[in-house]
């Protein structure tokens, strides 16, 4: 079972302790966080290992991210300079250039982009160098999907990135409206009368088949005698 801690401003995920427990005194153990993306955050994966690239592409695509993978690290800086990426996942040990050297080059063109370091060989030396280059996370391979989700979610929170997709928000609103309506023993026809919205539109909103306007949601909230924000189910 892996561990995840916050230490030195960086999230660490590792299978075996990289340092003695006393060296990470005060670290905060963090729990798993579910994650989906809202606005198609873009991730660049740089790793010479094809299996890792394919695994991360499949995993991150399934999580809702746009993913670009590079086997050749020499092309990374130009891509980062010319395109918009929210997150870089970078292997530490590559044949053409070390991950730390590439990280230094990346920081020369973008000092804000979030960077996750992957390594099968964690060490104090590379960990310290990662801190100096302000990486967001240092992950020991192999890692689990839950560990990776946790790290990305916490990086996104720190960077102020949105991590929930619109379709999930629509589904959450629809479920909340349906539950509130049924709790009040109201039919869709009765809701239509109260809101002056069609039964068809209300049904589509509840099934997340239609994106409701703020005006429509306000009418629904008024009909259900709740605040507009109560329809967002905690989002």
């Amino acid at each position: 079972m892996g561990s995840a801690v916050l230490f030195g401003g960086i999230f660490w995920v590792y299978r075996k302790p990289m340092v003695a427990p006393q060296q990470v005194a005060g670290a905060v153990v963090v729990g798993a966080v579910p994650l989906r993306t809202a606005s198609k955050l873009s991730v660049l994966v740089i790793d010479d290992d094809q299996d890792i690239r394919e695994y991360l592409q499949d995993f991150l695509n399934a999580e809702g991210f746009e993913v670009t993978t590079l086997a050749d690290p020499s092309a990374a800086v130009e891509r980062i300079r010319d395109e918009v990426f929210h997150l870089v996942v970078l292997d530490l040990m590559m044949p053409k250039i070390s991950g730390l050297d590439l990280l230094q080059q990346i920081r020369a063109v973008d000092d804000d982009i979030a960077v996750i370091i992957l390594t099968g060989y964690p060490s104090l030396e590379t960990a310290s160098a990662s801190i100096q280059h302000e990486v967001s996370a240092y992950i020991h391979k192999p890692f689990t999907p839950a560990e990776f989700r946790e790290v990305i979610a916490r990086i996104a929170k720190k960077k102020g990135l949105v991590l929930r997709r619109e379709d999930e928000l629509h589904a959450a609103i629809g479920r909340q409206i349906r539950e509130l309506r049924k709790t009040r023993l109201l039919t869709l026809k009765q809701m239509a009368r109260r809101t002056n919205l069609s039964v068809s539109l209300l049904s589509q909103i509840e099934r997340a088949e239609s994106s409701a306007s703020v005006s429509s949601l306000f009418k629904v909230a008024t009909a259900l005698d709740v605040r507009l924000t109560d329809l967002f189910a905690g989002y």
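The first strand starts at residue 3 and ends at 7. The chain is about 45% helix and 15% strand.
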